[in-house]
Amino acid sequence: MSKIARRKFIQLSAAAATGCFVQAGREVRADDLPHLSPDDPMAAAMKYTHDASSVDPATRNNPAAEQNCANCALIQGNDGDEWRPCQIFPGKAVAANGWCSVWAPKA
Q1: In this predicted model, what pLDDT tens digit does every residue of 46-92 receive, in sequence order?
Q2: Which residues on neighbouring strands pair with residue 105, listed in sequence order?
Q3: Residue 23: DSSP 8-state
């Protein structure tokens, strides 16, 4: 059994709960969504940035060789798209090269 920090558990639980409110039957397209701004209050709380390479790896919760939105389990949309929807930021598109503190590896 793996140990998950309480804070990380709460963040992932919030992401899962958010997914329950996504409107079924309509495909979300990133080009329909506004781009997430790092100044957005939720983005700031999650330490979101458009450029994952600008984040010090020592400050990350989950050590991994490369972390960005494109290889996060919470991102949606089509691989290869520059901007994609994310379960953490409903109604906004995140940069595929971005990063936030809720990053989780894809299974």
Answers
A1: 999 999 999 888 888 776 778 999 999 999 999 999 999 999 999 99
A2: 72
A3: P
**CA distance linking residue 13 with residue 77, whole number of Å:** 21
CATH number of 28-55+66-107: 4.10.490.10
Using CA atoms, how far apart are residues 54 and 97, in angstroms rounded to an integer?
10
pTM for the structure as a whole:
0.69
Q: In whole angstroms, what is the distance from residue 19 CA to residue 23 CA?
A: 9
Q: What Cα–Cα distance (Å) separates residue 77 from each residue in 30, 35, 62?
A: 7, 14, 23
Residue 64 vs residues 5, 6, 89, 100: alpha-carbon distances, Å: 17, 20, 22, 14
